[in-house]
């Protein structure tokens, strides 16, 4: 019997799960993988991004700014639940922190914000989820966030890497569940080749594209991409979950919806990932991998030496091994 395969993704705000890797998660859910979403904050600092909802007959018509904020706070959990249903998450766990807001705003200093949280305490919350759900694969944000340095996104990266290292270590958080060592840690990434392909397709279709020079001139990090997942049958998970966040995403925004699912498939039917740590084999070269669960065996393999060694050695050693073996691409 095959062991239950579990995929855990860590995100900062409701709607990040829709814009980063939704189709990949949908694909694995359809393939029988148990899928867990950890959302670190409630997105309390988000504004209404869809102005059509202020028109007569729409839910935000005639509201004061304070009423609008209260309405948003009541709607965002519902939007997240619908997005998670569309993508196919089996479980949604709120880590319970407050949205820290954009860089250098007042919300950064709110005592309940993710940004202000003690890093060991925040990591412990994630470790508890990892130990309970036992994911072989964790998806998180990368180490290079110069393009969008949101304090909560930076924190997601830091806490995820520490949780990957500490979940298997019995010396860390002894009261937060039986130690469990995940096997692989991936970073989501944007691909310049994808950006250019979409940009050119939009110009061919509409004569214009929302990607300006700031985007087109961003440094190319495509050499870091180790893993390309064919999501051509699951693009509707991306577009559908984005639309579920109706207060955050304008359904007429060409940035998100300039190409429909079929048009996107014609130019870029993939989602790209960076394998940052692996305990089950070497890090593949550029685009050398097409399956997040490559190297992760069935239940019978779980007693094979590679797993046993990880299980028996002190988890600190395992974490050290993870650092050494998991070549982090520059
Ligand atoms: Zn976010």
Could you explain how this protein is built, in words?
- The chain is of the alpha/beta class and 330 residues long.
- It has one domain: Rossmann fold.
- The protein contains twelve helices and seven strands.
- The protein has a seven-stranded mixed beta sheet with strand order 3-2-1-4-5-7-6, with helices on both faces.
- It is globular, with a radius of gyration of 20 Å.
- Residues 299-330 have low confidence and may be disordered.
- Bound molecules: zinc ion.
- Zinc ion (ZN) is lined by residues 12-13, 16, 150, 153.
Layout of helices and strands:
Blueprint: E1 6-11, H1 16-19, H2 22-30, E2 34-41, H3 65-87, E3 91-97, H4 119-133, E4 137-140, H5 151-166, E5 184-188, H6 192-206, H7 213-216, E6 227-230, H8 235-244, H9 254-257, H10 261-267, E7 270-278, H11 305-312, H12 315-325
Parallel strand pairs: 1-2, 1-4, 2-3, 4-5
Antiparallel strand pairs: 5-7, 6-7
The protein binds zinc ion.
Which fold name fills CATH's third level, the topology? Rossmann fold
Give the terminus-to-terminus CA distance: 39 Å
What fraction strand? 5-15%
Number of helices: 12
Which CATH class?
Alpha Beta
Structure summary, number of beta strands: 7
Largest sheet: 7 strands, mixed
């Amino acid at each position: 019997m095959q062991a239950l395969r579990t995929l855990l993704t860590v995100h900062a705000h409701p709607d990040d799960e829709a814009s980063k890797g939704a189709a990949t998660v949908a694909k694995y859910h359809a393939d029988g993988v148990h899928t867990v979403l950890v959302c670190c904050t409630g997105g309390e600092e988000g504004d209404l991004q869809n102005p059509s909802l202020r028109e007569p007959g729409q839910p935000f018509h005639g509201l004061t700014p304070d009423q609008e904020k209260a309405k948003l706070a009541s709607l965002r959990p519902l939007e997240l639940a619908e997005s998670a249903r569309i993508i196919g998450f089996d479980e949604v766990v709120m880590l319970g922190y407050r949205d820290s807001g954009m860089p250098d705003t007042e919300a950064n200093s709110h005592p309940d914000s993710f940004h202000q949280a003690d890093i060991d305490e925040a990591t412990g919350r994630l470790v508890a989820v990892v130990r309970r759900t036992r994911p072989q694969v964790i998806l998180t944000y990368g180490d290079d966030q110069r393009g969008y340095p949101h304090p909560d996104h930076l924190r997601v990266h830091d806490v995820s890497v520490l949780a990957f290292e500490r979940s298997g270590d019995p010396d860390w958080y002894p009261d937060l569940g039986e130690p469990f060592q995940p096997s692989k840690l991936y970073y989501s990434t944007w691909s310049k080749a994808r950006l250019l392909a979409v940009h050119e397709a939009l110009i061919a279709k509409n004569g214009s594209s929302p990607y300006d020079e700031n985007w087109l001139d961003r440094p190319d990090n495509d050499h870091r991409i180790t893993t390309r997942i064919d999501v051509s049958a699951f693009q509707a998970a991306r577009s559908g979950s984005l639309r579920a966040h109706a207060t955050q995403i304008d359904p007429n925004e060409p940035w998100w919806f300039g190409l429909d699912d079929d048009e996107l498939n014609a130019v870029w039917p993939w989602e790209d990932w960076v394998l940052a740590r692996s305990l089950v084999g070497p890090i593949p070269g550029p685009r050398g991998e097409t399956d997040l669960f490559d190297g992760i065996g069935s239940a019978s393999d779980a007693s094979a030496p590679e797993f046993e060694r990880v299980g028996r050695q002190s988890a600190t050693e395992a974490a050290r091994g993870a650092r050494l073996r998991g070549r982090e691409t520059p």
